[in-house]
C-alpha cells in the first residue's frame, strides 16, 4: 500500500534536512507518542550519512489489545541513507516483532518551497504478509492484509506529518533558521 504525505516546514531546506538527519533524538521530545529515538549506528561518508535509529513509542495500548501487544511491539528500527547533495533520505523500517510479515520503505525528499520554506514529501510502500501469522488462516490472511495495511497507513500518515511539525518546533527552540 502506498504511503504519501506532504508538509511545509517554515524553515530553510538546509536547516530542515540537517535537523531531520542529526537531531531526531532531540526532536522526539516534541512528539507526544514517542518516548525516545536513539541513534544505534552512524556512518558519515562523502556526501552520504547512514543511520540506524531505534524509535520507541509510549502510545497507550488499548486494553482489548494488551493480550496481543506488548511494549516491544511499539519499537521499530529505522535504517536511513541520507544523500546530502540530493536533499533526500531513503529509509527502511523494521519492526522488532513479526518482522517477517512487515515491509515498509520509502524516501523523504526535501524541496525548497518559497523563501525560507521546505516542502517535505514522504513517499513509501507498506506491505503485510499475514499468511504466516499464528492463528490467522491463509485464506483470511490474503483478504485481511489489504484492510490492515490501509488501517496502518491511515494511522501513520498523521504521525509522519507530526514529525515535520516537531522538526519545525525543534528548529524554533534552537533559534536556528
Question: What is the number of strand segments?
Answer: 7
Described by its quaternary structure, the protein is single chain
Integer count of domains = 1
Mean pLDDT: 86
The structure class reads: alpha+beta
Count the DSSP helices. Answer: 3
Determine Rg (CA atoms, Å): 17 Å
CATH class: Alpha Beta
Low-confidence region ranges: none
Widest beta sheet: strand line-up: 1-7-6-5-4-3-2
Which H/E pattern describes the elements?
A: EHHEEEEEEH
Please tell me what the overall shape is.
elongated
Estimated share of beta-strand residues? 35-45%
CATH fold descriptor: Alpha-D-Glucose-1,6-Bisphosphate, Chain A, domain 4
Helix coverage percent: 25-40%
Going by CATH, the architecture would be: 2-Layer Sandwich
Amino-to-carboxy terminus distance? 35 Å
Largest sheet: 7 strands, antiparallel
Going by CATH, the homologous superfamily would be START domain
Give an overview of the whole structure.
By secondary structure, the chain is an alpha+beta fold. It has one domain (2-174): Alpha-D-Glucose-1,6-Bisphosphate, Chain A, domain 4, CATH 3.30.530.20. The chain is built from 3 helices and 7 strands, in the order βααββββββα. A 7-stranded antiparallel β-sheet has the order 1-7-6-5-4-3-2. The protein is elongated, with a radius of gyration of 17 Å. It starts with a strand and ends with a helix. The model has no long low-confidence stretch (mean pLDDT 86).
